[in-house]
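tool_call: predict_structure(chain=1)
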Amino acid sequence: MQDGWIPLQCTDCGAELEYSPADLPPTGNEFTCERCRSTRPVSEFIQTQEGLEILESFHG
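tool_result:
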């Protein structure tokens, strides 16, 4: 399986980040922005539908 990167964006501070699905929690779990420490469900940080699908299939 080829590694993919999921683009994230924090709506609080505007930080644009990329993470491997292995470094993200499963959908519905909390994620904390590394820059401003804002915490919300990881799905609220994911910028694209494709990124959300990759994360869901990774944690299947």
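agent: The CA atoms of residues 51 and 58 lie 11 Å apart. Proceeding to next step.
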